[in-house]
Design brief:
By secondary structure, this protein is an alpha+beta fold. It has 2 domains: about 140 residues, Penicillin-binding protein 2a (Domain 2), CATH 3.90.1310; about 300 residues, 3-Layer(aba) Sandwich (Beta-lactamase). Helix content is about 35%, strand content about 20%. α4 crosses α5 and α12 packs across α14.
């Protein structure tokens, strides 16, 4: 009997304690407990939104977001079911991950959340879902995808694992591309499922806008293919090129080598990410002579057939000698450009004088960034006249003691092609939101007119001689077209500030066609060697690469050949001229 009495008393006592506890919970002041329950049931969720797309001028996709999923595990559930080994084996097999790595994530007692596979494509994630593994769940995400891999990598840039633009267009236009995530506050049941009727707050996400570029993916491909061939055949350390629409300033292609796959941006060193087309300052060499001659023509100091004695290849100025690559006697102004005479260009620069020369170079845009819509653009180097030495005017005339970017140099050439109007180069045509509203649109803008229409026409006529027999750029000639162009070869400077005899920066600038140019192209090669002649000059390295770039572009754009009928008449763009 005493045992029965003991059990009865024990049960009554237990029920009594429960009754007291229930009464306390219902009748007492339990604000802290109620707040804890509320927090456990409350669900706060950030509604992720995809980045906007990047498209070329023909609305072909260059960058977009793809849906992916994180494969996650709840170790507490898996370990309580004694399924750690089996689940790890299945996940390692499906995700093609090391078994030890997966098991390390699963075998973590007390943990409720571990990520096993990040950014798994939906097809593979769905295959894992069909296995119905206990304690395995999925997080929907998006990842940035570049369908063409390395194409235009230095222009597009990339967004990192957190979805933040970190280079190129992705970085400069990140605020418009990334949109605005939404927010949802609700309650969930015991199985962690949302109770839709208890949703208390919801802020809709705002998707990112699309960026429409001026790039043409076909032209970009032509340029990159030509640069790859130059790297292989001429053993160049690096190479870069730009194609610009003469009348508008729109950039049709911008390429830099070496390149990298945007989908694996985190596996390459930083120097491969450098956009050399705008991020490298270099001494341009003889291509710079076009600015000197154009200024003298514009000032009326010379005419195309004025003779200059080129001193048989050696001239002393301010006590310092200046040499030509080949000795020349008398050359007219056209001949100075055709033969690329340093002495002839230097004498023209001396006629201009320091102040006037500097004024023209600044008007051309040297010494300041063009303002292109990507990060990393250099300003070049143009010292004020007060810092010039006595001989500098003769060295500047041949493209030394100054530094430029390829884009600055090409913009000057396009100014000559555009009847003297200096256009603002641009890469972004328009920005459009998901509702089709145009948020921003770029119109062609003329910044200034440093030279007259007559000067520009004379320059084109003279520069066309460069690619004809007797000129330095004959290897840039294109059948059926007149090319107005200029070669440039400059010795590189080493870390001690000395010129290297066997390392050159070679470039070729060209307008196609010469009479009424539609496109301007610049090709720059670092330390290239012609495989046939073993020469390092631009006429044997950069000039043939220019031809390889220009030929497919001319056909693709259906540019009218020399002997075609019905010539096209272009109207200059005047908007924004001071």
């Amino acid at each position: 009997m005493w045992r029965v009495a003991f059990v009865a008393i024990f049960l009554l006592g237990g029920w009594g304690v429960l009754a007291v506890r229930l009464g306390y919970l219902h009748l007492g002041d339990n604000a802290a407990l109620r707040e804890r329950v509320r927090r456990m049931r409350t669900s706060e969720e950030t509604i992720l939104v995809g980045r906007g797309r990047i498209l070329d001028r023909n609305d072909r996709l260059l960058a977009l977001d793809l849906p992916v999923q994180n494969v996650c595990v709840e170790p507490v559930t898996i370990l309580s079911n004694r399924q750690a080994q089996a689940v790890s084996t299945q996940l390692a097999r499906m995700l093609q991950l090391p078994m030890a790595q997966v098991y390390d994530r699963v075998n973590r007692p007390g943990r409720r959340y571990e990520v096993v596979g990040r950014h798994v494509h939906e097809d593979l994630a769905n295959q894992v879902k069909r296995l119905d593994l206990p304690g395995v769940f999925f997080e929907p995400l998006t990842t940035r995808y570049y369908p063409h891999g390395a194409l235009a990598c230095h222009v597009l840039g990339f967004s990192n694992m957190e979805g933040i633009g970190s280079a190129g267009i992705e970085q400069r236009w990140d605020s418009l591309l990334k949109g605005r995530p939404g927010f949802r506050q609700s309650e969930r049941d015991g199985n962690k499922r949302e109770i839709v009727t208890r949703r208390s707050l919801e802020v809709a996400p705002q998707e990112g806008a699309d960026i429409h570029l001026t790039l043409d993916d076909n032209i970009q491909h032509f340029v990159e293919k030509a640069l790859d061939a130059a790297i292989t055949n001429m053993h160049a350390q690096s190479a870069w090129a730009i194609v610009e629409e003469v009348r508008t300033g729109a950039i049709l292609a911008m390429a830099s080598r070496p390149a990298y796959d945007l989908n694996n941006y985190n596996k390459v060193p930083d120097d491969l990410r450098l956009n050399r087309a705008i991020g490298v300052n270099f001494e341009p060499g003889s291509v710079f002579k076009i600015g000197i001659v154009a200024a003298a023509l514009n000032e009326g100091l010379v005419t195309t057939n004025d003779p200059f004695y080129c001193e048989d290849g050696r001239w002393t100025y301010a006590g310092r000698p200046l040499n030509d690559f080949h000795p020349y006697g008398e050359l007219d102004v056209t001949g100075i450009l055709r033969k690329s005479s340093n002495i002839g260009a230097a004498k023209i620069a001396v006629m201009l004088g320091e102040e006037r020369l500097h004024r023209y170079l600044a008007a051309y845009g040297f010494g300041r960034p063009t303002g292109l819509e990507v990060p990393g653009e250099e300003a070049g180097m143009l010292h004020p006249v007060a810092k010039w030495h006595k001989i500098d005017i003769t060295r500047i005339a041949m493209g030394h003691t100054v530094a430029v970017t390829a884009l600055q140099m090409l913009n000057l050439m396009c100014c000559i092609g555009n009847d003297g109007y200096l256009m603002k180069p641009y890469l972004v045509r328009k920005v459009v939101d998901k509702n089709g509203v145009v948020l921003r649109e770029t119109k062609p803008q003329a910044l200034s007119r440093p030279i007259t229409e007559r000067t520009a026409a004379l320059m084109r006529s003279m520069l066309a001689e460069v690619t004809r027999p007797g000129g330095t750029g004959t290897r840039a000639a294109l059948a059926g077209y007149d090319i107005a162009g200029k070669t440039g070869t400059a010795e590189k400077i080493d870390a001690q500030g000395r010129y290297q005899k066997n390392a050159n920066i070679c470039s070729f600038l060209g307008l196609l066609p010469a009479e009424q140019p539609e496109i301007g192209i610049i090709v720059v090669l670092d330390s290239a060697v012609c495989p046939e002649t073993k020469l390092r000059s631009a006429g044997f390295t950069a000039a043939p690469v220019f031809a390889r770039v220009a030929e497919p572009i001319a056909h693709y754009l259906d540019i009218r050949p020399r002997d075609a009928e019905e010539p096209v008449n272009y109207e200059p763009v005047l908007a924004g001229v001071p």
